[in-house]
Amino acid sequence: MQPSRSTLTISAIAALLTGCAAAPTYVRPAMTAPPTFVGGTAVDARAGSEAKVDLVTWWRSFDDPLLASLVERALAQNLDLQQASARVAQARAALRHANADLLPSGQVSGQASEAYQSLETPQGRIASALPGFEREAQGYELNLGASWELDLFGGKDAARDAARANWQASAAAATAARLTVAAQTADTYIAIRSLQARLDVARGQQQIQQQLVDLIELRYRKGVTAELQLQQAQGALARVSASVPELQQNLDKAMNALDILLGLQPGTTRPELAAAAPIPAAPAVSSAGGPAALLRRRPDIIAAERTLAASNARIGVAMAEYYPKFSLGGLLGTATMGLGGLFGGNATQAGGILGLRWRLFDFGRIDAEIAAAKGRNTEALAAYRLTVLRASEDVENAFSALINQQQRAQILVQGHTSWTKARASAFAGYKGGVSTLLDVLDADQHLLENRDAEIQAKAAAARAAVASFRALGGGWEAPSQA
Asked: What is the number of other CB atoms lying within 10 angstroms of the CB of residue 430?
């Protein structure tokens, strides 16, 4: 049997339209990355022969059990992470919906009705004159229906690809949120220990200044010291004392911020943190494979790339609107006026439908929709490239801060030793009448500033290590391929 000419023509047109409807093939953008980070050499040299830190659980490398406990509690309890998980579930549901759209849908419907005809209406008067008329009538119907929109031109398939990419992007974004929470928790903890140490230094200096005021006041009462010196000493004491409330305020804010990260009411963890503890020392950090590895490990880069893939698939969804939509529908059921004959052969009913929907005179709007989809794709590509650049910037900034803040801390340790000796000499000279009170006060001020800066530098180095781990994508089991 030879196929008819009309059948061949329709097949050719369908094949032609199918070829035209193909969505743009997605190709991952190639990113040219340098072989190493600018600061990688210095960071690797600092690490030396030390064992490399496990990036998956980098917070344990600070050798502070409380810090590790707080980070792990935050990862389990943080409310931002719960929102991110909910967004992943929503994206996964959207993917299931897109998969279901490719399949036929079916439904069962049924109804039972009873009517009582009025004899006072025109219809009732005419019907009552007919032989066998009954005012009361029942109706029963049971149907099984099915419908299927054929995806001849790939629109639904492209929508499924977009939904899958969106789900993958949301999962990567949730991982990025996890990394952020872990880093913020560790950073806040280090800030708390730094503020506690600075408070201890300020209060210690306050006691020293108070002792100096008491000494000068005693000498003033004996007429040995002028009132000007007493006022100078009291002014220096006030300057030191004024720094304590500000440091305490910042400490309170940091503790409250830590509680929020843990999903707790402010003040909950204060008993755990009440006892001051040393600032965690910055562990060894390595460049961890360089920029190429960064592209595979950073979840924000993965999320940006998946968002780009979704936008590319949306172009295919828009292009599919150029072409007709065909649908098949069918119904098989039974209907009768009496319940007893519902499943009899005479009550059977069936139907089939071939549907066509084509936006034939709407190409202007379709052109606009495709242009908009391409514009969003271009925007997503630029966002992806910017994410890659900013990821490298994060690493370089963190490495620079780590190296330079550690050097600064070492220099300030030497300065602390020098200023301690200078203050002792100035005080001894003042008591012996060789030095002035201003020499003592000047040494005190520089000693306080040096010690405070030293604490801040050590904390900044530890926080830079946290920033390095976060910038390198540490905190999760990264896939072997991007």
From this structure: 22
